[in-house]
């Protein structure tokens, strides 16, 4: 019977009905309770009801009586009684039940004196349950007061019971006539004492335990080193009892090592030796897993083939990515690393000898002893240390090149790609890890062999082969120059790509993220001929069509779309005529994504479509216009994850098909999208991207009728919820408008909405926000536009305002970004629908080149001083005064320095 809401309702109704004055409901309730009492955990469920304060008092009293009667009928089930006491104690102990612990101590004393360890262990189970809260609750004054009470009343009795049991165990073992059942009870008693020890020491080291540390530690070490054949050699049950005690000891000494290392230091070497010796024996048996892992966890503070064949993705995640700390191999190596921090020379010598011995055993009989070679490789790989600030690793255990040549190369050159898969995986991992240290000529000679291993039937092996190739292509010399180039992989490129796509046809590798990542990396590095491009786009669209049926692996899917994007980019850079071929292959797949509502892929599909539109030369082929119509529908913009990709696609259409905008009301639809995006702080930057693209690509005669609506939308946002991000984007938009359509049209269109609003906007928002602009193109655009504003607004703006604009321009151009930019937290969009909502994922390889609207201006600083110099020459003396009165001293000096640099003057 589980304790849940339904159980609580059932029991409450039954106990209420037992109080009924009517005989029929009372008899039905008693029958129901009698039947329920036969179910497991009935007593605990009733006890939970008694302890639940929200239950009516008379129901709880009835339940308490039932619980008492139930306990009388269950016999000597002391664990149930102990659990019951623990549940009660959680609410009442110790403050509301001060007599409990003294009574337990007295009973424990008399029971152990009478050698009744069956009953004594029941008491210890109860105390252990009561004290567990000290391990898991946060440290508070109330908890520490409870802990002090328990220490005052039980620290000394605990040690006495522990030492008394030590004596009994020693006598029993020394006599040679020990009874297994009796010894089992003694050992279990010591395990419980150790668990109570752990609870009482968890928060901090109590003074009593510090004073008696020797007495505890001497016995702890004994239990790690002494063997008890009468239990250990007679079956797994006896062994499990002893190992339970040893595991509890390891947890205790691990706790002391973690919390009181200085005090524990004098015991450390003895315990390390004891645990190490224990590990050598216990790690060979899978049934002793808990002891093995617990022992190693202690050592790291200072299953054999695992998941290799059962779940290759999980095996790789743990093995390759270093997240297998709960496996013996990894945690054993972490142990060696931890010890090596203090005893590097000794560890290096011992492990190097072990590696040599393992390789020697392998050479005697390679087929039978392959595991020894696997062990040697694993030791080198797992104990290698990563150098700070890079991907390079180092090891003192072996000479990397010699070890590679003697141990790794024979495995890589093996003609049978399916033989000894764990060895092959280890060799590939070694190659991957030490890729930076291996000379290029050595690696290049073996790359075709690595390509062969893509055909291995082992998922781990062909995954490691793909990862090895992918990581090799990331190696850089001098920090910048790729070591392996297109020329290096061209001789076997077609075979490589064929093997990669073939590997994804193998069972369980249909969505292998390591293979797809390798495909992406190879396509990003190789020279892609028409033949290779054709084969790859066919392979990728086949995969895309398949995963569209049931998208499962987001990492694989991302690399899939990145692979498509990089193939389009690299192939079309070399041969623009391939665009139509790509469109023919991809369009049906992308249309299927949209038609079948594969929402996870919408952002990817829109980014790929944008990439294809941008690669086309105007006029855009007619089949794209169907996508354009879908793009303009309000329904397409409802999901926030789609917005950045939709904006990107819309921008592509605006640039490539501007002549289509003024037809069939499309421009109104585009500006409606802008209006929706600009109204929310989470999407206003996307709205500005749309607006800026419209302003940049359409003539003023086309956009003029819409400018009033645009300004109203922007002014509404200024009044209702402006942010630093919005103000910077507003300055960028106004700057773009100014340089594209002139100051006159900017001023007239703004003031048509509200009289003299232009000057207000300049003074209150343009001037203070200008210095916050970031991004090289944006900085150039806004500084040049602001310079034009100074030069062309003498009749619009007074000298003080123009002086403040100049001060902001100099700040923008001459001061480091960190001195002038304000940090602003992101504004969450609380209007989002609660529930599943995939986030937008940017495809790196679809990235467009940033458009520069002022290609004719090379240097904005030179443009500023040249413009000011010409302006000042027309009215000498005016601008030096403007500068003195309005620019900060630092900016005056900076402007003077600029004039000197360009050999210009402001008179």
Low-confidence stretches: 823-838
Instruction: Kindly provide the radius of gyration, computed on alpha-carbon positions and rounded to a whole number of angstroms.
Output: 38 Å
Biggest sheet overview: 2 strands, antiparallel
Side-by-side strand order of the widest sheet: 1-2
Helix segment tally: 45
Quaternary state reads single chain
Mean pLDDT: 86
Report, as a whole number of angstroms, the end-to-end distance.
Answer: 94 Å
Would you count the extended β strands for me?
Answer: 4
The coarse overall form would be: extended
How helix-rich are the residues, as a percent range?
over 70%
Structural class: mainly alpha
Strand content: under 5%
Q: What does this protein look like?
A:
Helix content is 70%, strand content 1%. By secondary structure, the chain is mostly helical. The strands form two sheets. It has a two-stranded antiparallel ribbon. Helix 3 packs antiparallel against helix 4, helix 12 packs parallel to helix 15 and helix 17 (312-319) packs across helix 24. The longest helix has 35 residues, at 141-175. Residues 823-838 have low confidence and may be disordered. This is Importin N-terminal domain-containing protein. Its main location: cytoplasm. It comes from Anisodus tanguticus.
Write the topology of this structure:
Blueprint: H1 5-17, H2 23-36, H3 42-51, H4 57-73, H5 78-92, H6 100-113, H7 117-131, H8 133-136, H9 141-175, H10 180-202, H11 207-211, H12 213-225, H13 229-232, H14 236-259, H15 261-282, H16 289-301, H17 312-319, H18 328-340, H19 344-364, H20 370-383, E1 385-386, E2 393-394, H21 400-412, H22 421-433, H23 440-452, H24 459-472, E3 476-477, E4 481-482, H25 486-489, H26 493-503, H27 513-525, H28 530-547, H29 554-574, H30 578-595, H31 602-615, H32 622-631, H33 643-656, H34 666-678, H35 684-697, H36 700-703, H37 707-721, H38 724-751, H39 757-770, H40 776-792, H41 799-814, H42 817-820, H43 860-874, H44 878-886, H45 889-901
Antiparallel strand pairs: 1-2, 3-4
Helix pairs in contact: 1-2, 1-4, 3-4, 3-5, 5-7, 6-7, 6-9, 7-10, 9-10, 10-14, 12-14, 12-15, 14-15, 14-16, 15-16, 16-18, 17-24, 18-20, 19-20, 20-22, 21-22, 22-24, 24-27, 26-27, 26-28, 27-29, 28-29, 28-30, 29-31, 30-31, 31-33, 33-35, 34-35, 35-38, 37-38, 38-39, 38-40, 39-41, 40-41, 40-43, ...
């Amino acid at each position: 019977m589980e304790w849940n809401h339904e159980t609580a309702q059932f029991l409450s109704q039954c106990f209420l009905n037992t109080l009924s004055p009517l005989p029929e409901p009372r008899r039905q309730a008693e029958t129901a309770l009698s039947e329920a009492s036969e179910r497991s955990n009935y007593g605990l469920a009733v006890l939970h009801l008694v302890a639940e304060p929200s239950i009516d008092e008379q129901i709880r009293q009835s339940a308490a009586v039932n619980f008492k009667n139930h306990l009388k009928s269950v016999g000597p089930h002391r664990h149930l009684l102990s659990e019951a006491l623990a549940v009660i104690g959680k609410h009442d102990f110790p403050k509301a039940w001060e007599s409990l612990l003294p009574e337990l101590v007295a009973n424990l004393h008399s029971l152990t004196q009478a050698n009744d360890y069956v009953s004594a262990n029941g008491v210890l189970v109860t105390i252990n349950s009561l004290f567990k809260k000290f391990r898991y609750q946060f440290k508070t004054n109330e908890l520490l007061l409870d802990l002090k009470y328990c220490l005052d009343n039980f620290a000394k009795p605990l040690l006495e019971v522990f030492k008394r049991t030590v004596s009994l165990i020693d006598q029993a073992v020394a006599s040679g006539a020990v009874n297994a059942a009796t010894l089992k009870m003694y050992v279990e008693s010591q395990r419980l004492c150790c668990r109570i020890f752990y609870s009482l020491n968890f928060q901090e080291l109590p003074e009593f335990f510090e004073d008696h540390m020797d007495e505890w530690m001497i016995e702890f070490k004994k239990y790690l080193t002494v063997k008890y054949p009468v239990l250990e050699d007679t079956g797994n049950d006896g062994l499990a009892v002893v190992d339970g005690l040893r595991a509890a000891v390891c947890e205790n000494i691990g706790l002391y090592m973690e919390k009181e290392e200085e005090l524990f230091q004098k015991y450390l070497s003895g315990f390390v030796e004891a645990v190490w010796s224990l590990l050598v024996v216990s790690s060979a048996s899978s049934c002793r897993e808990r002891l093995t892992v617990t022992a190693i966890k202690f050592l790291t503070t200072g299953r054999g083939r695992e998941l290799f064949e059962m779940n290759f993705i999980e095996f790789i995640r743990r093995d390759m990515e270093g997240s297998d700390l709960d496996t013996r191999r990894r945690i054993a190596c972490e142990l060696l690393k931890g010890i090596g921090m203090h005893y590097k020379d000794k560890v290096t010598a011992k492990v190097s000898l072990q590696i040599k011995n393992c390789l020697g055993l392998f050479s005697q009989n390679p087929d039978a002893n392959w595991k020894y070679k696997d062990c040697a490789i694993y030791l080198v790989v797992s104990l290698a240390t990563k150098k700070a600030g890079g991907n390079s690793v180092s090891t003192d255990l072996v000479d990397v090149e010699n070890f590679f040549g003697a141990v790794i190369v024979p495995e890589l050159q093996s003609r049978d790609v399916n033989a000894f898969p764990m060895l092959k995986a280890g060799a590939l991992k070694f190659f991957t890890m030490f890729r930076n240290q291996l000379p290029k000529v050595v690696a290049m000679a073996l790359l075709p062999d690595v390509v062969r291993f893509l055909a291995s039937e082992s998922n781990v092996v062909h995954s490691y082969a793909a990862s090895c190739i992918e990581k090799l292509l990331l190696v850089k010399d001098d920090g910048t120059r790729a070591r392996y180039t297109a020329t290096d992989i061209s001789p076997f490129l077609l075979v490589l790509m064929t093997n990669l796509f073939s590997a994804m046809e193998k069972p369980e590798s249909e969505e292998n993220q390591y293979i797809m990542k390798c495909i992406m990396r190879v396509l990003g590095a190789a020279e892609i001929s028409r033949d290779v491009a054709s084969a790859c786009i066919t392979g990728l669209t086949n995969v895309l069509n398949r995963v569209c049926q049931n998208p499962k692996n987001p990492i694989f899917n991302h690399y899939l779309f990145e692979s498509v994007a990089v193939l389009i980019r690299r192939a079309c850079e070399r041969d623009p005529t391939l665009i139509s071929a790509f469109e023919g292959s991809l369009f049906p797949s992308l249309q299927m994504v949209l038609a079948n509502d594969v929402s996870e892929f919408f952002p990817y599909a829109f980014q790929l479509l944008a990439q294809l539109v941008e690669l086309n030369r105007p006029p855009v082929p007619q089949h794209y216009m169907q996508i354009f119509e879908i793009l303009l529908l309000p329904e397409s913009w409802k999901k926030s994850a789609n917005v950045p990709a939709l904006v990107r696609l819309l921008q592509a259409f605006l640039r490539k098909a501007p002549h289509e905008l003024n037809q069939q009301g499309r421009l109104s639809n585009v500006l409606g999208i802008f209006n929706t995006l600009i109204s929310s702080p989470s999407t206003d930057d996307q709205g500005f991207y749309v607006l800026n693209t419209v302003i940049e690509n359409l003539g003023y005669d086309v956009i003029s009728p819409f400018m009033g609506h645009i300004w109203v939308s922007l002014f509404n946002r200024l009044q209702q919820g402006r942010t630093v991000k919005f103000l910077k984007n507003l300055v960028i938009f106004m700057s773009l408008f100014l340089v594209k359509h002139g100051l006159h049209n900017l001023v007239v269109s703004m003031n048509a909405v509200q009289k003299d609003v232009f000057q207000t906007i300049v003074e209150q928002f343009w001037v203070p926000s200008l210095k916050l602009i970031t991004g090289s193109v944006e900085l150039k655009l806004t500084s040049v536009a602001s310079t034009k504003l100074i030069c062309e607004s003498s009749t619009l703006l007074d000298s003080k305002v123009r002086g403040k604009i100049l001060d902001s321009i100099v700040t923008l151009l001459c001061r480091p970004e960190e001195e002038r930019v304000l940090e602003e937290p992101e504004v969450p969009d609380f209007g989002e629908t609660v529930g599943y909502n995939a986030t937008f994922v940017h495809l790196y390889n679809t990235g467009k080149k940033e458009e520069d609207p002022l290609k004719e201006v090379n240097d904005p600083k030179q443009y500023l001083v040249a413009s000011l110099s010409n302006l000042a020459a027309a009215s000498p003396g005016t601008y030096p005064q403007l500068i003195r009165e309005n620019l900060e001293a630092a900016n005056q000096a900076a402007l003077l320095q600029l004039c000197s640099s360009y050999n210009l003057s402001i008179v």
